[in-house]
Specification:
Blueprint: H1 3-24, H2 32-41, H3 43-51, H4 56-70, H5 80-96, H6 101-118, H7 127-137, H8 142-152, H9 158-176
């Protein structure tokens, strides 16, 4: 084979490689970075991709920046007495939901913000920064914070507020736990939890009697 043919074949190979790179692009096509971010962020990854109109490169850049900014953040443990105070306040908010769902949702939103700040996340008046930081460390529960914040600042129905409270409670329970070893201890009861005798624990949740029971004083449905 002549030198000219070898050069021509190499040129074709180079053009093909460049074309593939342009079509697939860096960080696309299920690359290592994308797989790592999907594993870390779960549903949050899909939410950010959707917000970027399907542009995975832009979404992954945003998530990369969150990890760089907040990945090294080490949440502070809560003193036992502070933790118990938060648990009691959340139970009170849930009970308040029966008579005043809008006030309860607004208080739940503020309580989550203060709890996140006490755990070492950005200050409670910095909502966007809090959400970004929480998404790095609590990707599976951060949507609950968004939902309760949205419900607290919009004209949501009673059912929407009830669902937002349920979702927000997941993040609350994650944040109120002092450290991973404490999982399952010092947590507010879930509907259907059992006490040491095996009986179902009495829940503080106002919606525990069933979805058909509506909160008082709310014209929404």
């Amino acid at each position: 084979m002549s030198t000219l043919w070898i050069i021509a074949l190499l040129a074709v190979v180079v053009v093909a490689v460049v074309a593939v790179f342009i079509v697939v692009g860096p960080g696309r096509g299920g690359g290592g970075r994308g797989r790592g971010l999907k594993k870390r962020f779960g549903p949050e990854y899909d939410r950010v991709v959707a917000r970027h109109d399907g542009d995975t490169e832009a979404a992954e850049h945003e998530l990369d920046e969150r990890v760089k900014r907040y990945g090294s953040l080490e949440p502070r443990a809560l003193p036992p007495e502070t933790r118990e105070q938060y648990v009691a306040r959340w139970a009170g908010v849930q009970e308040q939901f029966v008579d005043s769902p809008r006030h309860a949702v607004a208080e739940a939103d503020r309580l989550l913000a203060r709890l996140a700040a006490d755990r070492g996340f950005p200050a409670d008046e910095q909502y966007d920064e809090q959400v970004s930081a929480l998404s790095v460390h609590h990707a599976g529960q951060v949507e609950g914070y968004r939902r309760i914040h949205h419900a607290a600042h919009t004209d949501s129905s009673t059912e929407q507020m009830r669902e937002a409270m349920l979702d927000a409670r997941e993040l609350f329970e994650e944040l109120v736990t002092a450290k991973p070893a404490d999982n399952g201890r010092h947590r507010p009861h879930h509907v259907g939890d059992r006490d040491r005798s095996g009986r179902r624990a009495r829940s503080h949740a106002p919606w525990s009697p069933g979805r058909g029971h509506h909160a008082k004083g709310s014209g929404a449905s």
